[in-house]
Task: structure prediction
Amino acid sequence: MSQSTTITTPSRSRRQIVLRVLAAMFGGYVFAWGTVALATCLLFAAKLDFHDAEFLGAFIGLLAYVTVFLWSIATQRLLRVWIVLFGGGPLMAGAASLVQSLLA
Result:
C-alpha cells in the first residue's frame, strides 16, 4: 500500500506580492530617509563634525534600508510592514526636525 502525500503550501496572491515588494522598496526608502535624518541630527547634537555626522548617518540609513527591506519580505503580516515603514520614517523625520530646532 502506497500512500500519496501532498504537501500544500500557502500561496500568496499576486496582489499581496506586489504590495509587499512596493512596501519593501518605497517603505524601506521612507524608513531609511527618517533614519538618516534622525541619526545625522543626533550625531551632530553629540558634537560630531557635521560632515562626519552626515556620512555616518547615511551609512546607518543604508544598513536600516537593507534590514527593513529583508524584514518586510520575510515577515508574515503585511499590514504591520506598511505601518512600521510608512509610520516610522515620518516619525523619525519629525523627531529629527525637533532635535534640529532645539539645536538652533
Observations:
- The mean pLDDT is 90.
